[in-house]
Amino acid sequence: MSDAADIEFLLGQRGTSQEFGAWVIGLAFGREGRSLHAGLGDGTVRVAQVAAPTEWLTVEAHKGAVMSLCADAKDGALTGGDDGRVMRIAPDGTATELAKFGSKWVEHVAAHESGVRAAAVAKAVHVLDAKGEVVKSLAHPSTVGGITFDAKGKRIAASHYNGASLWFVNAKEDKPRALEWKGSHAAIAMHPEGGHVVTAMQEMSLHGWRLADGQHMRMSGYPAKTHSLSFSNKGKWLATSGAEAVVLWPFFGGGPMGKAPTELAGGDGVMCTRVLCHPQHEMVAAGFEDGLVLLADINTGRVLPVAPPGQGGVSALAWNPSGSHLAFGTESGFVGLLDLSAR
User: Fold this and answer.
1) What is the spatial distance between Cα 151 and Cα 25, in angstroms, rounded to a whole number?
2) Which helix (H) or strand (E) holds 10?
3) Which pTM does this prediction carry?
4) Distance between first and last Cα of the chain
5) Average pLDDT of each block of 10 consecutive residues along the chain (343 residues)?
6) CB 111 within 8 A of CB 117
7) Complete DSSP assignment for 177-224
């Protein structure tokens, strides 16, 4: 991809872009499929409708920076800020405060289509119901590094120092299953079928647990820390950042133990910073530290160039629920929206 001037990038043919001048912390399409939300380091959330992608609303969501953003349970987005607030941003840009945790940062938020939501604040994960009320607070031994719901929204996993904790959201007695491994654990992912939990570690490796028998899985060899994990739609592959290519670990045929990873879309000496698998097909979007964005077919290895380098390191990726639109954002505040639907 070094001769970018000679390549036709899809953004120029099928996309639009905006420059917001502040770090793009997170991107999320609403589950209703109409709205795109961009959370920025200046505390604002920018909202556009997929049908009118050049018209953006500015929502003054947080006094400080947006720390985290995800799709909310039904539509719109959920955000956490360094002002201690959890906000809901509706598709029309209406902002509603759901919870406030004093001066503590809300570093991670998660939501499930069933209506349950969660916010990580220091050592606690607070569970919010469909009305936005905190119904329980789950304590951890150290600062929470990442949170994720399982596919059914019945369990929530949280990473922290020396491992991860797996909780049943509706359990009467809040006692987690402890997944132990020494070291600092950050980004976390659960297999779509619920049988595996994987975390990214400070030590430039991944660690996983097979829940059926507690088997440990160690995936190492990264030249940099992994900040982004994404399982393919049926869980056959785990895509990861942290190398000069998209690194995919096989979760079939007994893998990943004893199996070598597959690498896609690399070779220019530039680190991959974000990955996100397509919601329906075995395809992965990847962003790099120079601003390059690519699409890669996992089965064939074919690579499609989405956006050229030059707009800052890619800091966020998002697919809409059907996989017809891809959005990406960078550290410089550049946001691109790609329309991949049939024309």
Assistant:
1) 24
2) helix 10-14
3) 0.96
4) 27
5) 65 96 98 96 97 95 97 97 97 96 96 97 95 93 98 97 97 93 98 97 96 95 96 97 97 90 89 98 97 97 96 98 97 97 76
6) yes
7) EEEEEEEEEEEEEE-TTSSEEEEEETTTEEEEEETTTTEEEEE---SS
Instruction: Give the residue among 38, 43, 33 at the shortest CA–CA distance from 57.
Output: 38
Q: How many other CB atoms sit within 10 Å of the CB of residue 82?
A: 18
Which position has the token pair 């739609």?
233
Write down how long the chain is.
Answer: 343
**Contact in structure between 81 and 106 (CB atoms under 8 Å):** yes
Count CB atoms within 10 A of the CB of residue 281.
13
Q: Tell me the C-alpha distance between 121 and 105, whole Å.
A: 6
Which tokens go with 116? 């349950």
Tokens of 224: 């940099």
Contact 115, 130 (CB under 8 A): yes
Tokens of 294: 């690519």
| Residue entry with tokens 């028998």 | 213
Q: State the pairing for strand pair 95-100/117-121.
A: unpaired
What span, in angstroms and rounded, lies between the C-alpha atoms of 308 and 5? 8
Phi, psi of 123 (to 5 degrees): -95, 5
What are the tokens at 308? 């050229």
Q: Which residues partner with 315 through β-bridges?
A: none
Which class for 303: exposed (0-12), middle (13-18), buried (19 or more C-beta within 10 A)? middle
Q: Rounded to an integer, what distance in angstroms lies between the CA atom of residue 151 and that of residue 156?
A: 10
Alpha helix (H) residue ranges in the chain? 10-14
Contact 26, 69 (CB under 8 A): yes
Q: For residue 43, is it left (φ>0), alpha (ψ between -120 and 50) or beta?
A: left
Residues 328 and 287: beta-carbon distance below 8 Å: yes
Q: Is 310 helix (H, G, I), strand (E, B) or coil?
A: coil
